[in-house]
Design goal:
By secondary structure, the protein is mainly alpha-helical. It is built from eight helices and two strands; from the N terminus they run αααββααααα. The longest helix is centred in the C-terminal third of the chain and has 32 residues.
């Protein structure tokens, strides 16, 4: 659980910025990255994000772990674009008797899409490391996201860790009783573990619902209350967006 963002956030300048500004800035940057047609701007965004993460003292292996899945998707995307799309043949060869041709325009298109992916993932990653989940939900509420959805996300996030701990306890008990010595017994034990967790989900949901009603819950969450914007934070966010907007225009 220590690899989750909630356990790695430090007292950094970005962590003290209003979450509404961070969400708005991240959304605009995502739009700029996804609408860019080249390589330079998304890679610049990824580089700036990496520098900020280093300043926040986020372990490199944690950052790399966050990028493994997107990098695998990028690799598959580049291969598919290179060998199955395009017209300009870069090289041709035979693989197990199957003729294959690599296309230059397909490769470039795959790299452009990959650059957008890594740029967008970098923005989301830096946002997750400098914004707690509750701050993120508070920001979403200001952007008029339905309150029912926010409540569900908050309760789900709260009980993810409870269910994870219960799953670990059940798994260790099954493992100590040789529940995973064979594939057949492993599947049976996994089914039992899944069924137990589903029952516990219903049990926790009922307990939470009853306890909230008994405590007079009326749908208002104190954590969704917002402080006033700071002029300095607004000016800094505007300056950063103007800077990246100029870069987007120059590198287009």
């Amino acid at each position: 659980m220590e690899i989750l963002s909630e356990y790695l956030q430090t007292d950094h300048r970005l962590s003290r910025v209003d979450p509404r500004l961070k969400l708005g800035t991240a959304l605009i940057l995502l739009i700029l990255v996804l609408t860019h047609q080249g390589f330079v701007f998304p890679l610049l965004i990824a580089g700036v994000s990496a520098v900020l993460l280093l300043q926040m003292r986020i372990p490199f292996q944690v950052y790399l772990l966050r990028l493994l899945e997107p990098l695998f998707i990028i690799l598959m995307l580049v291969l598919l674009k290179t060998f199955f799309t395009g017209r300009e043949v870069l090289a041709s060869f035979s693989f197990w008797g199957l003729p294959l041709a690599a296309h230059q325009d397909g490769l470039l298109e795959g790299l452009r899409l990959g650059a957008r992916i890594i740029g967008a993932v970098s923005i989301v990653t830096i946002l997750s490391f400098c914004t707690s989940f509750t701050q993120f939900m508070a920001g979403l509420s200001w952007f008029k996201v339905p309150q029912g959805l926010i409540e569900i996300l908050l309760f789900a996030y709260r009980y993810i860790f409870v269910l994870l701990e219960e799953a670990q306890v059940i798994y260790q008990a099954q493992k100590n009783r040789f529940g995973y010595v064979t594939a057949a017994r492993g599947l049976q034990s996994f089914g039992t573990l899944t069924g137990s967790l589903i029952l516990k989900v219903f049990e926790h949901s009922q307990n939470v619902s009853v306890s909230m009603v008994q405590r007079g819950y009326d749908g208002n969450l104190p954590l969704l209350k917002h402080r006033s914007f700071k002029r300095g934070e607004i000016l800094a966010s505007g300056a950063w967006l103007a800077f990246f907007g100029i870069l987007w225009k120059i590198t287009a």
